[in-house]
Each structure stands twice: as C-alpha cells, then as structure tokens.
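Working notes for the structural subgroup meeting. M.R. asked for a predicted model of this chain before we commit to crystallization trials. I am recording the input and output together here so anyone reviewing the notebook later can reproduce the run.

Input as submitted:
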Amino acid sequence: MQIGYKLMAEQYGPDDLVRQAVAAEAAGFDFVEMSDHFHPWLDRQGHSSFVFSVLAAIAAKTERIELVTGVTCPTIRYHPAVIAQAAATLALLSDGRFVLGVGSGERLNEHIVGRGVPGVRERQAMFREALEIIRLLWQGGYRSYDGRHLRLEDARVFDLPERAPLLAVAASGAVSSRIAAELGDGLFATEEKPEIVRHYREAGGKGPRYAEVPMAWAPDEATAVRAAWQDFRWAVTGWKVMSELPNTVNFEAATATVREDDIRDRFACGSDPARAMEVALPFADAGFDRLVLLNAGPDPMGFIEFYRDELADRIRKLAPA
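Returned structure, recorded in token form:
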C-alpha cells in the first residue's frame, strides 16, 4: 500500500503547497497529488493556482516523492497536445517522478473558455480522443489526428522522457472504468465503490488504483468538523453534482442544507487514528492500493505530523482486496 498527501490548490496558495509537499516527503509520504482547478469550490477557499507550475517547483525542492495531478481535464480548458507537452516536461524535471492523473472534467473549471460543456456521453467521447492524442504525441515524431471532437495537426513534443509518464484515469462507473483500462496505466477514483475497481479489472486494467480518503485533522473533533463543514461541505454532494455546477455560488446554494453530522459521517474528524483507519479501510477493501489522504482540517502541518507519528505504520499495513 502506498500513501499520498492531497495538495488542495483551492485551499492554499502556491507557496504553501510547496512547503506542504516538502514536509510530506520528510514525513514519509510516497506521493503528493494536487488538484487541477481554475476556480475553487467555494469563494471562502480563495485559491486556485496553476498545477503544472506548482508541481515543477515541488520537483525542484524534493528528491524522492512522486507527483500526481488529481485530476487534469485534457479536453476543453486545455487541448490534449498542451497536456502531453506539459506532462513530458514535468516528467523530465522530476526525473520520472510524475504521474498524469486525468478525468473528463467539471463544469466549474471547463466552462470558463466559453466553448460550452457537453453532456456526459459527449464528454467521455472527447476524453477518449484526448487520451489517444496524448498517447500519440508521447510516441515521438510529428503527429496528426482527425477525431469527431478533437483535431491535431503536425504536432510534435520535442522534449520527451525516456519513459512516458504513468497515465491514471479517473472513473466513477462502468464506461469510465473501461476507458481507464483501455487507454490508461492506472485508475483514479474519489469513492470507495468496489464496482469501480471490478469494472476496471474486468476490462483488463492491471495498473495502480488511486483513491482519495477524506480526513479532517485537528486536536479535537469539534474543531475538525467545523473546519471541514466551512470549506469542504461540497465534497458530500456526490460526483453528479460536483461535475455539473458552474460556479462557486452554485456550490454555496447546493450545500446550504449540509449538516455537521454529514461531515462526521463522511470524514475522519479529529485526532483519533482509529477513526482514520475506519474511514480508510473501505477503500482498501474496495481494491485501491494508492490511498490519497485529504485533510479538510485547519492545520496541514499538524496533519502531516499526525500521519508521521500515529498513522503511517497502521495505514501502510492495509491490504487492497
């Protein structure tokens, strides 16, 4: 079992994220995973830095820890050719420590370029074409592609690593799990659903399986719950809501009825390692072998120390089903 630390680009500025990544490496985390957003989920979060710039800075200040995007949408806000180039560059700067996590995107971030955000079926078709383009460019040479949704004309990524970055594909159901198995090197998910891993394996997927585990560290439970409710209550709405709302004001409205008890049910709140293990266990039982610890609490450095001192040895003993 490998354990990662979630860098919340919506919650902290770029300098803070770099400091957290350096501390995560020192504490023994295997990788850091950073969200790729243009907007935060809620206005009060107040940040949203450019993921590839921040990860490049982290690569320069660390030696061992793996870097993962969690996740990048390579279809609307970015053309897949740009992502193929960015990922190749970051793989070189990190000496092969970069993993490109990709997904079909959220309206919150993709609508900003004014091209419209299609429905789920068309988004997934675009996503499949985008992954084909990225794979094509990573083969080297000049490449063209004429898809139904995306085009590429005489493009070449000149600076390629000897080994292409691992491509981890986000999935939430059968169709996206098949895309992950067919075009990706690994699976990425945010829910502890065994059927996601089952669909991935049935489609031939054999790669690493990443999942985010919701935690909120503070010395006492009440402080942790309150902090998570203030800044992370959007996380209990579910993927169908999270992928479709266009702006922070919509997430404010959609989460107006979320209670603190809803946060307690979903997150491991406080400083009890037993509760943290209780929340992490279903992800291992579902078959995930790369657990990303997301801290919704108010003190990221305190959470990293908590992991190092009280949680690391326990959670590493979990065995994926």
